[in-house]
Specification:
Blueprint (H helix, E strand, L loop, with lengths): L2 E5 L3 H13 L3 E5 L2 H10 L4 E4 L2 E2 L2 E2 H11 L4 E5 L4 H9 L4 E4 L4 H18 L4 E2 L3 E4 L4 E4 L2 E2 L4 H12 L4 E3 H7 L10 H15 L7 E4 L3 E4 L2
Parallel strand pairs: 1-2, 1-3, 3-6, 6-7
Antiparallel strand pairs: 4-5, 8-9, 9-10, 10-11, 12-14, 13-14
Helix pairs in contact: 6-8
Length: 222
């Protein structure tokens, strides 16, 4: 489920957009200011941003610029500012589109669908934070732009963690999922060895992904 961050200070319009997007099965985060949007963005894994220009604590342009420095996330401006120079500024900052109010909700939903589809085609990786990338279909993992060779067990572990990011995966769950096709059981010691090897291949001082929850299991923090 794609997660969309709606940044709009008009409460009624914000709620209306969120309601329409939820009906289309999108996950929603809602903010009414740049400060609130930054707090949400740093906590949530956002796939697309709907961004107003006129906000109580600054212009959406500054937030767009800040976001693009963090990670390449598609931004769609949704604003009453219809001057040509404003639209050009939005595109120059890397926005996917610039929609002026009033707008058709049906057209907005179609634009969102097209943008997300285009981004998926442009970036085939199932996980990509700029440092670590994983393509499950091609069984390809890269770290800092370099191909990372993983064992089958390490690859299955990484896939499992990414699919359940933020969730605690208990030892029991991990051991059950890592039972290989030959019926060879993976015990807790072997699990720990494989996770430590995986961490050694994908982590560095600035990028920590897997946390050991003592006595319970492991959690993906990326």
């Amino acid at each position: 489920m794609k997660r969309i961050l709606v940044i709009e200070d008009d409460w009624n319009l914000n709620q209306g957009i969120c309601y329409a997007l939820q009906k289309e099965k999108y996950a929603l985060c809602s903010a009414h200011s740049i400060k609130e949007a930054k707090e949400i963005y740093q906590k949530e894994d956002i796939d697309l941003i709907l961004l107003d220009v006129n906000l109580p604590d600054g212009e959406g342009f500054s937030f767009c610029k800040w976001v693009k420095k963090q990670k390449e996330v598609p931004v769609l401006f949704l604003t009453a500012r219809d001057l040509e120079e404003d639209a050009l500024k939005g595109y120059e900052l890397g926005a996917e589109d610039y929609v002026t109010k009033p707008f058709s909700m049906k057209i907005l939903l179609k634009k969102i669908n097209v943008i997300l589809k285009r981004i998926k085609e442009r970036n085939p990786f199932d996980f990509d934070d700029g440092f670590l990338k994983m393509n499950v279909e091609q069984a390809k993992v890269t770290v800092a732009g370099e191909l990372c060779l993983l064992t089958p067990t390490e690859f299955r572990l990484l896939k499992l963690f990414i699919e359940h990011k933020g969730q605690l995966l208990t030892y029991e769950v991990l051991l059950d999922r890592l039972w290989d096709g030959n019926g060879q059981f993976v015990d807790k010691h072997t699990l720990a060895v494989n996770i430590n090897r995986l961490r050694g291949k994908i982590e560095d001082e600035q990028h920590k992904y897997i946390s050991n929850v003592y006595g319970m299991g492991y959690q993906w923090l990326g």
